[in-house]
Amino acid sequence: MKTIPWWQTAVFYQIYPRSFKDSGNDGIGDIPGIISKLDYLVSLGIDALWISPFFKSPMDDFGYDISDYCDIDRIFGTMQDVTLLIEEIHKRGLKVIFDLVINHTSDQHPWFVEARSSPDNPKHDWYIWQPRTDRETGKPRPKPNNWIGMFELTNAWRDNDATDEWFLGTFTQHQPEVNWRNPDLKNAMYDVIRFWLDLHVDGFRMDVVNWYIKDEKLRSNPFSWRVNPDIFQKHIYDRNQPETHDICREIRGLTDSYDGSRVLVGEIFVRDVEIAASYQGNGNDELHLAFNMEMLYIRWSARVFAKTIARWYAALPGSGWPNFTFSNHDQPRHATRFGVRNEDHQLARMQIIAMLLLTLRGTPFMYYGEEIGMKNVRVPHSEMSDPSGKTFWPLPLGRDGQRTPMQWSSAENAGFTESGVLPWLPIHKNYREVNAEKQQADPGSLWHWYRKLLAIRKTHEELRTGRFSFIKKGKNSVLAFRRAGETGLIECYLNFSNRKKRVGLPVDVQVVLGNFRGEQEKLPAGRLELAPYEALLVKI
Description:
Layout: H1 6-9, E1 12-15, H2 31-36, H3 38-44, E2 48-51, E3 55-56, E4 68-72, H4 79-91, E5 95-100, H5 110-115, E6 129-131, E7 148-149, E8 154-155, E9 157-160, E10 165-168, H6 183-198, E11 203-206, H7 243-256, E12 263-266, H8 273-278, E13 289-290, H9 302-315, E14 323-324, H10 334-337, H11 343-359, E15 363-367, H12 387-392, H13 436-440, H14 446-459, H15 461-465, E16 467-473, E17 478-484, E18 489-495, E19 501-505, E20 509-514, E21 522-523, E22 526-530, E23 535-539
Parallel strand pairs: 1-2, 1-15, 2-5, 5-11, 11-12, 12-13, 14-15
Antiparallel strand pairs: 3-4, 6-10, 7-8, 9-10, 16-17, 17-18, 18-23, 19-22, 20-21, 20-23
Helix pairs in contact: 11-14
């Protein structure tokens, strides 16, 4: 029998370290705080963790601007804390992947400090440069092209007076892009990967993979009407270059040389599912998983969900494996995107999304606080930290709102940090009602709904590896599908409407889980009336 890799059946849980749990009482979450909550994640039923950056950084982009890939920033703890974290995660039978941010470094990274000092420095070519002055005429040159600095809405070419050049920084001026065409830079990055694999990390979530290589001719991007996330450009020259796939294959080969079935999960920052799927190569030679960003922008509609799911399945290579996520640290939480004022309907909608995420064919990724229905916080301008939030203000396009502290309890500061300490971002005002402690004590809560679904996944092979087929593709606001395994069939019925809907059951079934029906309840063949926002899982 074919061995199924662990990452195909695992459920991942993303932790944003600054916001998960503060053990040092400075208002910032840390690695010891994560360790203190591992048993909570075990009790929920999580299989693997994805931990966002905690590496040494000046925090111009809150960890995605790294000044030392092989050290931890002291606000998060020590390297001893990191090795203990890995050990404690594995001790509990869980897996862990770390963020790999290798498209750019911080401008305070020693590599760049050297590179910017002189065009003759050996590391100068580790980054991407263009002269500001014409070498023959001595006249100023225009900037090379129209590429955008995403978080500052400026041209992406940044001044470096010491060498009379521009360097490329397509996020902020503090995040220079590295030159992946330089073999020495490439080898240095591969050494970073080896460093963490040698410490027994189970893989990486790879940041903006499709940005690694830029057009050699540095051509300007054509105009586009799409604002978010493309900022009025078709990014055909600063992203998705063919050579990027060669880098993915090399990193895959490096990762595969280690034991333990390590995994590579790529953030492919693009709305085109075919481009995203292409980074899985032929299914076994590039990334193991590639995120489908389309799911982070999707609207509440059974028909739209069905079309999006079908497109994703169709785009993947023959042996490629899908994955799904509806929230992360860069996009608004789905409890806000899909939210309604009616509390009962809000809970039912979140139950639908949870059932969808955890019963589709593919690897699910949850975002911290998703299990209790955490919502975005409207962060005042005076309290903003995110550089893109400050740039786009007053438009609500910043990322602080989805990065606010985890709501652990009804105690002051939601149990994230001690009373009297100011958290790094404000906590949602609903924390006394929406928190993990309260929901764990309530069998009818969203937390227990997630826990039940996660337990059902573990005991039903159909949901982990079974075949997928649609029953209803969103017509009349009902999305329904079947998972067929070696030992049985499970069907999922989701009513996206606030009205009753009827569906047909061809045979007698038994309820596995439902938000309006009792477990083990028998449902006879015939017409079945679904309640408004009903989520129903049945076994044939």
